[in-house]
Amino acid sequence: MEYFTLFMGAAIVNNFVLARFLGLCIFFGVSKSLSASVGMGMAVASILTVSSALAWLVYNFVLIPYDIMFLKIVVIVLLMAGCVQFLEIAIKRYAPALYEMWGIYLLLIATNCIILGVPLINATANYGFLKSIVNAFGSGVGFALAIILMASLREKLQYADVPKTLQGLGISFILAGMLALSFLGFSGMIPL
Amino acid sequence: MEHSLIQHSIIILITLTSLGVVFGLILAFANKKMAIEVNPLIHIVEDVLPKGQCGACGYAGCMAYAEAVVINPDVPPNLCTPGKDVVAKLVGELTGKVAAAVEPRIAQVKCAGTHAKAAKASEYDGVQDCVAANLLFGGFKSCKYGCLGFGTCVKACPFGAMTMSEDGLPIIDPDKCTGCAKCETACPKKVISMMPIGAHVRVNCNSHDKGAVAKKACSAACIGCTLCVKQCPHGAITMENNLAVVDAKVCMEKCDNPACLGKCPTKAIKPAVLGVVPGSEGNVA
């Protein structure tokens, strides 16, 4: 039950994009196309889970015992950069169509705040190993949910009569704000 | 655990190095194992290109053009303007395509409005950049078509072929200019344009103002008097909106005695001689 609460908390109540405002670069960049967004959501979810697991292991078995916690940001950056690069190589080989669709955004997530933030939060929050994996996976699913919602809305926007000054990113930001407002309704249900 | 400074430093060194090595090895292994087949011809073609990344071919950099010319059978091998005939032939040989002759071009500055000759309409004291100056009522000169002289084009040249002279006009080095047209795109007044190498004359003015107005703004202006048009027996010069325009191809093919040069009252038409040391009258710019 505890794991379910943790998962729902990370995915919906404290959604990393809509409630904690991380990962906006990928969020706005890739949500122009629904198929690219589905792929990106899955990629982010998998990267978050893997790098959170690795980060937890390194933090608890290397950084804490040797009293070098101040290196956590550097080490986690190293871990996630390696993970993202590995993912890029794998995707290029096994799913080249997806690779073409993401374009530059795959490399952008290598240094994105959400990819740094989630492992960092998990590693330092004193969860057990399994809990931190569930938390990370929940964050990934939450991100995927948010980006898929946004992409579906943006695709509908193409048929809408948007004023010239707001076209493109302008109306997307407004829309994202409204989405965030609606997710605000969940706040407090599962405390952080 | 209490560690001394030295112990701490060693631990940090070992931790970060080993993490880096582990990940490096994983990535290297993955790179080998999951490598995809990239056509090696693409790299060979890319090696041949001048790698100025200027985009004159219409592709996003030399690698993009190499990919396109190898993979796509419709892409001609002679799109690289800076590479000229040498590169076009090589690319053609490598990809098995026939290369049509690349027309070598060079940039020309269609303005003779030096500080001495062109009248100033206002004192400009702002950002020393042509685009910025152009935003304020079209610049500080009386002639709204003229070169502003702040050197935005000079900065845009990827081959270092341009310098700004003392008079406020850019000078183009004909040996270094590859005709990539980056300066043409950078100029907000569109004073620079590409000219085929070998043309005999060029009109050194960009002004579409009527005769009296143009002359008042700059003493070296083209006043649209059509004397050159009437003088040319081959019809290479036409008057477009108070500005003489030379059809370089006709001029190159048919002209053996540029009679237009003598007739111009303001000397706006000049010989297009390359390789002349830049002076105030005879420079290529």
Write a structural description.
The complex is a heterodimer of chains A (about 190) and B (about 280). Chain A is built from 9 helices and no strands. Chain A has about 190 residues and is mainly alpha-helical. Chain A has one domain (about 1-185). Chain A starts with a helix and ends in a 9-residue tail after the last helix. The mean pLDDT of chain A is about 85. Chain B is α+β, with helices and mostly antiparallel strands and about 280 residues long. Chain B has 2 domains: about 40-95, Orthogonal Bundle (3-methyladenine DNA Glycosylase II, Chain A, domain 3); about 105-270, Alpha-Beta Plaits, CATH 3.30.70.20. Chain B contains 11 helices and 8 strands. In chain B, a hairpin with a 5-residue loop joins strand 2 (about 160-165) and strand 3. Chains A and B meet through helix 3 and helix 4 of A and helix 1 of B.
Summarize the structure.
The complex is a heterodimer of chains A (192) and B (285). By secondary structure, chain A is mainly α. Chain A has helices spanning 2-13, 24-30, 34-63, 72-94, 96-102, 105-108, 113-124, 129-157, 169-183.
